[in-house]
Each structure stands twice: as structure tokens, then as C-alpha cells.
Amino acid sequence: MANKRLLKMPFIKPRQAAAPTGIFLGTEALWVYRSGTATAPYSACYPHSQNWSSLFHSLAAELGPAAMQLVLCPTYYQLVIADKPAVPPEEIPQALLWSVKDMVAMPPQNIHLDYFESPLANSNKLQVVITDKTELTTIVQSADAAGMNFAGISVEELMPTNLFADESHARLVISHVPGEEVLLTVVRGGELCMHRRIRGFRELDTVGVEALRLGVADNLSLEIQRSMDFFESQLRQPPVASIDLLVQGETDALAKAVAVNFNQPVKVVDCDQVGAKMAELAFSEWQRGRA
Questions:
Q1: Domain identity same for 101 and 185
Q2: Distance from the CA of 216 to the CA of which of 9, 133, 194, 246 falls in 20 to 30 A?
Q3: Which InterPro entries match (predicted)?
Q4: What is the CATH number of the domain that holds 196?
Q5: For residues 4-37, b (16+ Cβ closer than 10 Å) or e, as one string?
């Protein structure tokens, strides 16, 4: 997959002796993950009201200099599909700008974009990540002013690729950050083969066991089956080997209720807070980039 570290901001100069840190930026909170050496890994949540200067100065005071692998939640970007322009690679970003400018409610001069490609053969589509240049610049410059810098900036859809980076079989991952729509991804060998947002499950983390049994799990299973059918018939790929749930709430009950509808094993990814796990996966992405 091209461009795993998306949304480069080249005017920010990296600092030396900065500790690698995974960051997940949610709508109302930021999660941090830093690997431990002699101690346990550090994980924390920082509520914010988009006062970026205050937020990053608080982080700097707590963590010291950090090289942050930042992952954005969908509040801060749009992800659209566009045909791959028939131009040299260095001209693709400019060509994409004119392809996607009518897909978003944002003046072209405010668009900052990057893209990644599908690992599947014969795909002429690009996944284009679009952010507001002013907002992203403010975030990056606020971090820089606090003595922090970014090793890379990525998006939520790419994080499940870090769960099973060495797996040769495709796995379907259902992830849900509370307050967001459910994200369905299919990953294989550290690459993103397919993704979609599933509407109607924004409060999945609060659904009780009885409600899961009385229809919620079956409705989710229907959406999973539709995606599996598309993956096999339209994308001409072998069936996924498992279904993995990265969710909060009644996870075991959800896994059992979904499992009765499939031949594949349904597994729960171990985590207390999905936002915290996203920050850990951001750290894993930094490690993969260094390998």
C-alpha cells in the first residue's frame, strides 16, 4: 500500500531525541500510547475542546519531547474514492485535487490531500484523504510550538492493518469508537483490502445483552455478510478467515450472537477503550515504518 504515513506537512522539522508516541485524535478526546522499556506501557486520555495549543502544551509537560504518529478520527477528514489519474506519480496530487473538489464542501485552496492505493490487482481506484489545510496546519504548528513533532499522520481506516500485519489470510475487522459509525475493514498482510462505514450502530457500545440478542447482532451480521459477499464476488477474493471485533460494551455477548450466523470464528480484540487501542495501533504503525 502506498503512503501509509499520510498527510505529510514538510515545513515541520523533526527534532532529535524525541520518544516515539502513538496518538489517536478523537472528536472530544486524545489518546496517547508510549511503549515501556523497564516500565509498563504508558496509556492516557486527554479530553479536549479543540484548543490545540493548550492540549499539546499539556502533553509536552506530561510526556516531554515526542515524535508522534498521529491518527485522525473522521471528524478531521473525508475519505473519498477517485479514479487514478493517468499522469506521472509526481503529478497525481494536483490531478486529484481537480477530481475531488466537487465531492467536498470545501474551497479547493483549503484542501490538503493525500491518497493510498488498493493492494488488490487490477484496481484503478485511489482512496483520497481530504482535510482542511487550515485546521491541520493549526494542529501541527501548535504541536511544534509545544516542542512536539509528528513522525506521520494517518487515518482510522488504516489502523486495523496493524492488528494482523503478518497474517497471510484476510480478516474482517469490526471496529467502533464510541460516538462514531461502525467501521468495517478487511485486512491482509498488513494491507487494507476493503473498508466501509456501517450506519445505524453509533451507540453499539451502550447496547445491552438482551437488545443484542433481539436483533442488533443479527442486523450487524447482515451488514457483515453483505460485505463478505462483495469481497468474494465483486472483488474476487477468497473468503475471510475470521471476524474480529474491536469494540466496547458487551463484547462477549456480541461475539457469541454474531458467531451463530457465520462459519468463521468470531474473536474479540482485547482492549478496554477503543480510542486507547487506536493510539496503540498508531504506535505499531510507527514501528512498522521503522522496520
A1: no
A2: 194
A3: ATPase_NBD (IPR043129)
A4: 3.30.420.40
A5: bbbbebeeeeeeeebebbbbbbbeebbbbbbbee
DSSP run (H or E) holding 253: helix 251-259
Contact 244/146 with Cβ under 8 angstroms?
Answer: no
177 and 263: one domain?
yes
- Domain shared by 202 and 118, yes or no: no
221-234 confidence digits (pLDDT tens): 999 999 999 999 99
Beta-carbon contacts of residue 261 (< 8 Å; ≥ 6 apart): 218, 221, 224, 225
What range defines the domain where residue 259 resides?
164-268
Q: Distances from the Cα of 204 to the Cαs of 170, 221, 248, in angstroms? A: 24, 13, 8
Q: What share of the chain is helix, strand, coil (3-state, %, to 5)?
A: 35, 30, 35
- The CA distance from 67 to 25, in Å, is 15
Q: Amino acid identity of 51?
A: N
For residue 43, is it within any domain?
Answer: no
Provide the residue type at 112 as one letter. H
